[in-house]
Amino acid sequence: MRDGPLPRGEEKARAVRRMFDQIAPRYDLVNRIMTFGLDVRWRRRTVASLSLVPGARVLDLACGTGDLCRELARAGARPIGVDFAWGMLARARTRAPLVQADILRLPVDDARVDGITCGFALRNVADLETLFAECARVLRPGGRVALLEVSEPSRALLRRGHSFYFNKVVPAIGGALSDREAYRYLPRSVVYLPPPGEMLAMLERAGFTGGAREQLSGGLVQLLTGTRA
After folding, report:
1. Residue-wise DSSP of the chain
2. Angle CA(213)–CA(216)–CA(221) in degrees, nearest 5?
3. Domain ranges in the chain?
4. What is the mean pLDDT of residues 122-130?
5. pLDDT tens digits, 87-121
6. What is the pTM for the complete model shown?
7. Rounded to an integer, what distance in angstroms lies between the CA atom of residue 130 and that of residue 37?
8. DSSP letter string over 154-215?
9. For residue 166, how far is the Cα from the chain centroid?
10. For 9-228, which CATH class?
11. What is the pLDDT of residue 5?
12. How sure is the predictor about 192, in pLDDT bands with cuts at 50, 70 and 90?
């Protein structure tokens, strides 16, 4: 994705799928390096926020290579990974069942799962309202959702440092190890995210109660949670 206006709608979906198919071979390596391994801690916090009981059935949306699926399995859940990028699924390192599908149109019956996770994909979907409504549809009443995404620190000094690292260093690392154009797009894609209050309001409109937002690692990432009414 070159500089210029970011794609929208179906054009965005096609571009995102192509990009993740392309960067799949070294996706995990780049993640570990550019987050200094903090992404492992963030995913564990995401799973813990679901308050799972043993055997809970959990969908991991935009599962990629299966990092969250592995954490869910360690917590005693029965994860199912869903992603529309075949390249990512082909590189998955998990024993969980994997499904190639659009997370805006899940091949799951109503009220069939106990929890939903999603890691760093909210800014990549074409329509957040539709995603949240689909999460509400497939979750049983009382089921939990935990959505992990990038954020911007509230403290000015940390925010400036984060901006430099995210916009300059991350593309350099991605370019050296994988695909420069893709890792230039990822920092730019933050503009797709609505303000936190708006995302929480979307969750409420979709049918979730107790919506909450937690900032992790000084605000580098955010975790949105809610309970299906």
Report:
1. --SSSPP-HHHHHHHHHHHHHHHGGGHHHHHHHHTTTHHHHHHHHHHHTT-PPTT-EEEEET-TTSHHHHHHHHTT-EEEEEES-HHHHHT---SS-EEE--TTS-S--TT-EEEEEEES-GGGSS-HHHHHHHHHHHEEEEEEEEEEEE---SSHHHHHHHHHIIIIIHHHHHHHHS-HHHHHHHHHGGGGSPPHHHHHHHHHHHTEEEEEEEEEGGGTEEEEEEEE-
2. 80
3. 9-228
4. 96
5. 999 999 999 999 999 999 999 999 999 999 999 99
6. 0.94
7. 32
8. SSHHHHHHHHHIIIIIHHHHHHHHS-HHHHHHHHHGGGGSPPHHHHHHHHHHHTEEEEEEEE
9. 17
10. alpha beta
11. 79
12. very high
The CA-based angle 191-194-196, given to 5 degrees, is 120
User: What does the alpha-carbon distance between residue 90 and residue 118 come to, in Å, rounded to a whole number?
Assistant: 19
Which residue is listed with tokens 């689909």? 134
Listing from the earlier edge strand, what are the strands of the sheet with 221-228?
Answer: 98-100, 78-83, 57-61, 113-119, 139-150, 221-228, 208-216
Q: Name residue, tokens 């911007």.
A: 152
Q: Tokens 């916090």 appear where?
A: 45
Average of per-residue pLDDT values in the chain = 94
Query: What gap in Å lies between CA 112 and CA 90, rounded to an integer?
Result: 26
Q: Give the CA count within 13 Å in the CB-facing half-sphere of 82.
A: 17
**In 3D, which of 134, 98, 111, 115 has the Cα closest to residue 53?**
115
Q: Dmax of the chain from CA atoms?
A: 47
